[in-house]
Amino acid sequence: YKAVDHGANFAQPGHPAYEQREPDSQVLSYWKPIDELDEFVSASSDADFLDPKSGIASRFDVDNAIDFHLLILLTSNMDGIDKNFIIARNAPTSAEPKPRFFFAPWDYDATFGRNWNAARVEPNAWLTHHLFDRLLANPEYRKKYQTRWTELRKKQFSAETIKQMIDDNVSTLGPASKRNSERWPGAGYYPDNTSFGEDIDQMKTWLDARLDWLDKEFAKKQ
């Protein structure tokens, strides 16, 4: 299922905020799995939600949920927290008769200091939805969540690693950017009329501020 509307926030039952992608809806309309999940997350009691046998951990890959949420926060994907993601699960098998759901990233243009319309975004927004709020209300989950953030910050989420990824992409896209500016001189790339190089510099500055703010927010939540 692809989340196509900001109603994909797990706060109410039903599936109007989703499109079915597999199986082909023209062949088989199959909404029961996502309907059951949204019903459970939006309406279950705290005791049922956290039940070790039948609760959320039996229905959703919690480790995947942590990584997905941390990626959303790192990049400040304001258009992807309750929209523009894929939620899926494997087909049932004899070895796994009740497969759990997981998130898959989708559509990351509204990130690293820009919103979907290219407007500048401050580095101090906490992004969440009802599923993540319910998970974070549990001390055991919150500890695991904090531990994973600390682990990722050492390498994958370090400023050095991400800036190197940016530089690698600049090496690939830079010549095309130069040709683009020569073909349409003075057009600019965003509403604030920054050049390609200026936007890269702004992105890196924003990243430093974002990581600093997130580290402080995680410290508050311990």
Notable characteristics:
222 residues, mainly alpha, two-stranded antiparallel sheet, two-stranded antiparallel ribbon, 46% helix
Query: Spatial order of the strands in the main sheet?
Result: 1-2
Class inferred from helices and paired strands: mainly alpha
- Gross geometry: globular
> What is Rg?
20 Å
Strand content: under 5%
Low-confidence stretches: none
Instruction: Kindly state the number of beta strands.
Output: 4
Ends distance: 33 Å
Total helical segments = 7
Specify the helix fraction band: 40-55%
Q: Helix and strand string, N-terminal first?
A: EEHHHEEHHHH
Quick rundown:
This protein is mainly alpha-helical and 222 residues long. The chain contains seven helices and four strands, in the order E-E-H-H-H-E-E-H-H-H-H.
What does this structure look like?
The protein starts with a strand and ends with a helix. Helix 6 packs antiparallel against helix 7. The longest helix is centred in the last third of the chain and has 25 residues. The mean pLDDT is 92. The chain contains seven helices and four strands; from the N terminus they run E-E-H-H-H-E-E-H-H-H-H.
Helix and strand topology:
Layout: E1 2-3, E2 18-19, H1 32-43, H2 46-49, H3 62-75, E3 86-88, E4 102-104, H4 130-136, H5 139-154, H6 159-183, H7 196-220
Helix pairs in contact: 6-7
